[in-house]
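Shipment paperwork, digital attachment
Item: protein structure file
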Amino acid sequence: MSHITLDEARELLQALCEDDPALTDLRLPVYLPTELEMKLIEGLGRSTHLVSLSLQDSSTPSDSLFKALTENTYITSLDLTETFLNPSGGAHVATLLRENRSLQKIDVQQNNLCSEGGCLIMEALQTNATLTTLDISLNDLKDDGGAAAARMLRINTTLTHLDLSYNGITDVSAQLLSAALLQNTSLTHLNLYANRIENDGVVSLAKMLTHNSTLVRLDLGVSTMTSEGATALTAAIGANCALRELCLIDVGLRNLDAIGLANALKTNTNLTLLDLERNHIAEAVLSFIDALKVNTTLVTLDVTHYSRHFAEELDALLSDPRRAAQAAGEADTKPAICIPLAQ
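Attachment content:
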């Protein structure tokens, strides 16, 4: 995010204090001295039009600012990315989520919350009935934080998007999350990219997919799976689970694993996106071509380093307008293919 000057911030905050109806989205990517933070607090108490506030790359909010945010009844989206919250700031965010009834989206990524701060936020969400989107990636939550997320998902009925990427979560948390998602009926998007999930966690999540009818996007990129994990995912896709988007970037898929996934597409009518980037599966491309002659719903396939001939053939199949029209009700979906061609 591009930084602004203090004078520019001062002008924006003056407009906020005057309740400028045109100021609905405020971004303050600048260190706020006490004077300007007090101006922001004043503005939060006066504005009836501001609905989105971003303090990304700004200074750590003071106790007084957190209190003003908690009492505000208009803001629905709050971005606190890289504001040096640390675990103590996580406690303030937890209080905010317990008491505020307007916030629908919050981003607290890259704040060194650790498991302590993460657990407090997840506990607060057990009673929160308004938040739909939480990005808590890059916070070193580890398995204590992952377990807290699982406990929250057993109770919370509002959250739809949860980003837990880059948090050091292992199979222990993946299995707990899987069990929670057998009960949860609200979460639609789960991002577990670049954690420490290995085969047991992948198998557990795959088995969950055959019973969960709500989750539509799952990102397991940079997990480590064997053929057992790939087989479990293949079974879920073949059983036509509700999932629409599956991301398996750099998970160590082999050609036989990928061929199994391709064959599963022949019976699947829900999946619209399959991301297999950075897997060495060149010999499986013909299987995907064969599958796409039967499958009519997949509109995005991300594979790597195939010849121009194969890329063009896949592109032609995915670009068929009839495919996009039939893609699980997404009649206006634009077909896409991401195939870096071999040099």
